[in-house]
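Reading a protein record of the kind used here takes only a little practice. Each token is a code from a learned vocabulary of local backbone shapes. With that in mind, consider the following protein and its fold in token form:
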Amino acid sequence: MLYTEYLAQSREDGCHFCNPRDRKFVENDGAYLTYGIAPYHKHHLLVIPKKHAQSFMELTREEAEQVWDIIRKASAVLLELVYESYTVIVREGKNEAKTMEHVHYHVIPDIHIGDLDHEGKERVVMTEGEIQAVSEDIENAMQKLTFTGL
């Protein structure tokens, strides 16, 4: 079954991550470890915060630490399965590219991320002018922020 078909069939079940049924391998007060139902890789793991939130920015510091604890456990599992590397990806929010409105973390062994950009085009190295423009954007955004409490 295609993942899109699975999602369409099970929409009435509510949030898949808030109602995981028997899919938990390990958990703490703030998060749990499960497998990817439509994996990018055979041993694709997911770390799910128990709090239903669209963004990791909605998690408290304590909840974020509990998520990180489970990510470390997921990483240890993959190393025990003799993978040399893995990638941790956070997925959040809601738009056409996201299927879940519940923030979650993918822990994927030996995934190839690199040659294509988010539009499926071959990646290119930025020019000096592009680097300067991006740096200015980031600096301007940082000047508007205070990082206290984060």
